[in-house]
Structures are given as C-alpha cells and as structure tokens.
C-alpha cells in the first residue's frame, strides 16, 4: 500500500514537474523570440539557444549555395604546401607564384591557430563590426564586448568610440594599405592581426616587416606603413579559400573577369561576414551599409570624414555586396544589431 501511495505521489510530482518544465521552456522560447524581434534593444542577449544544431543546420540549408564549412581560417605551413585541394590560382584566390614569400612569412610568425579558449567553445557567438556610419549613436558597445569573437576591419579606431563600437577585438582583418602603424593603440594585447593577401606585394610587405628587411613600397595603391608595431605571434594570414568563396559563391563575381571589364574584389567587410559564417554558430553584424550613392556629403565611416566621393574609383561593387547581405539577412544567416535601411 505505502509503496503504491508513494509511487502515486511521485507520479503526481513528476507530472507537475514536467508541466512546469514545459511551461518554463515555452515561456523562455517566447521571451527569446521577443528579444530577437527587437534586436535594437539594449537588453538583447546573445542567445545560446541560437546555437542549437537545428538552427545552424537550417541556416546552412537555407543558404542554398553549396558551402563546405571550413573552420581552419589561417594559412599553415604544413597544410598549405601539402594539402591537395589548394587552389592553383595566383593571389588573391590562391598562392600560385607567391609560395616562397608565404613560406618566409609563415616561418616568421610560427602561429597558425585561433586561441584554444575560442577554438574549444561548443558554440561560438560572433559579431562583425563594420566601419559604417550606421553604428554611430547606437550605444552597442557593451553588447559587442559580450561576444566570444569580435571581428573588426582595417584600421577602424576603437578608442574614443567605445560607447558605440565596444573595445574588445578578437580578430582584425586588414591588408597592408589599410594597416595602421601601431595596432596596439586600438586593439587588445591578444588581438589576432589577420592579413588578407590580395597580391604578392602584400606578403612581401609582411615578410619585410617581420624580418626587418629593407621595405619596398612599390606596387601598392596607397603607401602601406613602413613601420608596423604588431606582434609577430599575433599575425595570421587568411586562407585565400575564403576570398575565393566570397567572390565566387556569395557575390558571383565572374572569374576570370570578362575582357575589358574592371575586376572587382570583395570588401574586407563582406569577406569578414563570410569568414564568420564559416567559423561561428551565431553571426551578428553592425555598422554595415553605405550612404545612398546620390548622397555625396554623408560620411561613410563612423570615424573620419571620408564620403561616397572617395569610393568612386574603388574596385568594389558595393551594390552587389548590399544585395548579398540582404539575402543573408532574409535567410536569417546573419542578424543586424541595429535598424538599417
Ligand atoms: C549622436 O548624438 C549626438 C549627441 O546626442 C549628436 O550631437 C549627434 O548628432 C548624433 N549623431 C548622429 C550620427 O546621429
Ligand atoms: C574595455 O573597457 C573596459 C571598461 O572601460 C575596461 O575594463 C577593459 O579593460 C577594456 N578592454 C580593452 C581590451 O581595452
Ligand atoms: C578630414 O579629416 C582630416 C583628418 O582627420 C583632416 O585633415 C581634413 O582636413 C578633413 N577634411 C575635411 C574636408 O574636413
Ligand atoms: C555590380 O553588380 C551588379 C549586380 O549585382 C551589376 O548589375 C553591376 O553592373 C555591377 N557594377 C559594375 C560597375 O560592374
């Protein structure tokens, strides 16, 4: 008798616990979805629930382009020289003809990985902070600092803009012309400085810096810094695979370029989004977008005073990139942290 009573009581307790748990889950899901509907609110949490396998899976399925998720981001001595699927193209899509420069760069850096505390996360939440004017006055800084991985671009400053852009930087993606001479000023001590090689000169620049050789500044469209105070153990070289895939799969840039047509390269911004889609489980973005073409006065960036005028002769197709970003947003592969056009 007693044992039956106990088990009946136990059943009742079990039932009510189950009901409680279900109710709790339903409510949490409700609040999480409420939050994701108002991404501009400052109380937005980076929801680990977004990491659940099903949502990641759905995300990738809905992207429709076939993508082999590759999470090794940086060029490594061993795989680069022995890997079978290495591209046979010259830079920016492959290392053909630049192998020796690459070898010398990699020998000097000797580090090719992400830090273990990020690499070993079950769920990687990432934010790509674009340099666009749209991030001004958003007060997103403290939210941005909460992501596992904060990716910044080129020489965008942090000091003086912390309220809107935060001050944590996990990776900074740049190329020589967009490098700032002293990365220590606007980065953390352990920020990875990730160089995107567009051309052989870019690797040559890095090799000369790392080995303190005589600088040769020929072949750049803007003089790169001749003194660069970054720490060699923090330098990485982005695998050209990502540039190739961004151009080819995301932007559908014709390759090789049609005769007489200008060749376009992805911006570091869209490249960073693509890198994040490969590496991260959650990808949020802020500071993307350009002013309308007809508005020649509005600044492009959240810092400085560059306007659309200066983009006139750029080798980027920003309308194509805007379309690709819109598509990624519609597919819920990326989420904007602030309202945008
Ligand atoms: C940002 O806010 C400041 C002070 O509230 C204001 O002066 C400035 O015009 C705002 N900037 C933008 C881009 O809205
Ligand atoms: C970011 O700002 C906070 C608060 O001012 C400070 O404690 C922290 O050390 C800063 N981090 C970096 C990397 O500058
Ligand atoms: C733009 O900013 C730079 C430095 O910040 C300054 O030297 C230059 O005069 C400014 N140009 C205009 C048009 O305001
Ligand atoms: C940019 O891409 C769009 C397609 O997205 C294309 O129609 C346009 O011609 C391209 N711009 C240039 C200058 O090639």
From TrEMBL:
Q: What class of enzyme is it?
A: transferase
Q: Which InterPro entries match?
A: Glyco_trans_29, Glycosyltransferase_29, GT29-like_sf, Sialyl_trans
One GO biological process this protein is involved in is: glycolipid biosynthetic process
Pathway terms, separated by semicolons: Protein modification; protein glycosylation
**Which keywords does the record carry?**
Disulfide bond, Glycoprotein, Glycosyltransferase, Golgi apparatus, Lipid metabolism, Membrane, Signal-anchor, Transferase, Transmembrane, Transmembrane helix
Transmembrane spans:
12-34
Name of protein = CMP-N-acetylneuraminate-beta-galactosamide-alpha-2,3-sialyltransferase 4
Q: From which source organism is this entry?
A: Oryzias javanicus (Javanese ricefish)
